[in-house]
């Protein structure tokens, strides 16, 4: 009997997941995830790619999806290793000849799919975009400025409705049939996510949070006014981690906002949240367009140069101080402390610490991006590297140099943010 592999790496969810609807002529289907060893355990420029928190969050979401699928009698195979290699081995073991997965965004996924396509029939589905297949911009014509992109696509944007949660069918391999392939995952869970550790990342938690934010507390109504705050629970949507993991569908979120606008109220804030989701969308298409060039020293603006950043002794010390929140600038250090302690930082904070590293300390932007990659619980390849390049002036804009003293006065006028984080009153 022929088997299809359904790769759920970028869609760690039941809701709005087109991959769970694949019928494939009634042939057997195996739900699979590959936890990419490289993305979690390798280094770039001598910086670990992910810290323990990020790994734990990933494991937590996968475990919760595995439980949700098991409740529908669908087994989930979670492999650990190189994506293409692991899938080819599994395909051989199961006699699989086809693979379905979400349309990729970043270089590593494209490379994996290219390798897999040599031996399997690979079909990619648009699962995570707003423009979708109907308004697929065509990369050659994709504008390189966000404003041009927005003006071109926003007026006619028809975001596809989320697909319903798939009804179980009997063509999926069951938990009993897939259990034997999960030895590595079980070991990873035991080692890195022991039961006593309560890590709440899951599809259900993400959806409940957004329902609370939009419908119950209606915090969405002040989004535009509060989004530049530096700390707090509801100044922004806090949807980024779930979107980055794929445990939340961007199309579902978009339609929740529009439903709220239709049923309750549409204002500048409800619009602005959609505007920010368009930024995310923009970077994702930009990544498809320029691929690995985003990791080049001069980004998409210059000749390709993948040589690693070089720092002199002073710069090495400055970079260490920046990472460990010891620059001596209270505003920068408070933001970096927040990142180091929670894995998150406000957008305003991110812009400032990035500008400070690049333009005040004169350090290669790619080191900052690599450090953020390790730390951010909402790490998303396109959004992170795209935003860093933006501030460095190597991406979709001229360099953005913030005057961090002025920014601190503007966004933390009484020093309460710095005080709350460091316990030290800014003088
Ligand atoms: C240097 C730097 C690095 C960044 N790295 C990441 C990253 O790795 N992952 C990430 O999701 N965002 C990143 N951002 C963008 C932004 O800071 C975060 O998306 C936002 O702070 C997340 O909080 P939120 O979910 O409450 O956002 P909200 O303000 O509620 O926005 C809603 C959603 O819109 C999207 N969004 C908002 N702002 C941006 C933006 N500037 N670029 C792209 N998408 C945006 C996100 O998906 C976000 O969840 C980075 C920004 C900077 C300046």
From TrEMBL:
- Alphabetical list of Pfam families matching this protein: DNA_photolyase, FAD_binding_7
- Photolyase/cryptochrome alpha/beta domain residues: 2-130
Is Membrane among the key words of this record?
Answer: no
Entry's NCBIfam families?
Answer: crypto_DASH (TIGR02765)
User: Per the UniProt record, which residue ranges are transmembrane?
Assistant: none
What the protein does comes down to: May have a photoreceptor function.
What Gene3D superfamilies is this protein classified in? 1.25.40.80, DNA Cyclobutane Dipyrimidine Photolyase, subunit A, domain 3, HUPs
Question: What's the family?
Answer: Belongs to the DNA photolyase class-1 family.
Protein name, UniProt field: Cryptochrome DASH
> Does the keyword field hold Membrane?
no
* The entry's keywords: Chromophore, FAD, Flavoprotein
Cofactors named for this entry: (6R)-5,10-methylene-5,6,7,8-tetrahydrofolate; FAD
Cofactor note, please?
Binds 1 5,10-methenyltetrahydrofolate (MTHF) per subunit. Binds 1 FAD per subunit.
User: PANTHER family in the record, alphabetically?
Assistant: CRYPTOCHROME, CRYPTOCHROME DASH
Highest taxon above the source species = Bacteria
């Amino acid at each position: 009997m022929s088997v299809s592999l359904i790769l759920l790496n970028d869609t760690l969810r039941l809701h709005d997941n087109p991959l769970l609807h694949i019928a494939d002529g009634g042939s057997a289907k195996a739900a699979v995830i590959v936890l990419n060893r490289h993305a979690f355990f390798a280094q770039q420029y001598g910086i670990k790619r992910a810290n323990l928190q990020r790994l734990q969050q990933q494991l937590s979401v996968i475990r919760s999806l595995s439980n949700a699928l098991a409740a529908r009698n669908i087994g989930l195979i979670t492999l650990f290793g190189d994506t293409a290699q692991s899938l080819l081995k599994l395909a051989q073991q199961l006699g699989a000849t086809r693979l379905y997965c979400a349309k990729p965004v970043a270089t590593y996924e494209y490379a994996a799919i290219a390798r897999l396509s040599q031996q399997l029939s690979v079909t990619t589905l648009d699962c995570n975009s707003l423009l979708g297949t109907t308004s697929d911009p065509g990369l050659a014509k994709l504008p390189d400025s966000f404003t041009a992109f927005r003006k071109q696509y926003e007026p006619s944007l028809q975001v596809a409705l989320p697909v319903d949660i798939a009804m179980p069918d009997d063509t999926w391999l069951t938990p009993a049939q897939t259990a034997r392939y999960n030895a590595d995952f079980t070991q990873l869970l035991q080692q890195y996510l022991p039961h006593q550790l309560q890590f709440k990342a899951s599809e259900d938690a993400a959806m409940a949070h957004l329902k609370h934010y939009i419908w119950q507390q209606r915090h969405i109504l002040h989004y535009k006014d509060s989004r530049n705050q530096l700390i707090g629970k509801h100044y922004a949507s806090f949807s980024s981690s779930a979107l980055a993991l794929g445990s939340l569908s961007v199309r579902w979120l978009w339609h929740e906002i529009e439903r709220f606008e239709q049923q309750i109220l549409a204002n500048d804030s409800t619009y602005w949240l959609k505007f920010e989701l368009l930024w995310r969308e923009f970077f994702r298409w930009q990544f498809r367009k320029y691929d690995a060039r985003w990791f080049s020293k001069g980004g998409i603006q210059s000749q390709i140069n993948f040589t690693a950043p070089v720092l002199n002794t002073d710069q090495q010390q400055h970079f260490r101080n920046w990472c460990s929140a010891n620059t001596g600038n209270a505003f920068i250090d408070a933001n970096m402390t927040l990142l180091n302690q929670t894995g998150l930082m406000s957008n305003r904070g991110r812009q400032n610490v990035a500008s400070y590293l690049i333009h005040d300390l004169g350090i290669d932007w790619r080191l900052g991006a690599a450090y953020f990659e390790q730390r951010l619980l909402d790490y998303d390849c396109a959004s992170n590297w795209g935003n860093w390049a933006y501030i460095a002036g190597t991406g979709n804009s001229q360099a953005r140099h913030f005057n961090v003293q002025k920014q601190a006065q503007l966004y933390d006028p009484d020093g309460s943010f710095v005080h709350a984080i460091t316990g030290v009153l800014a003088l």
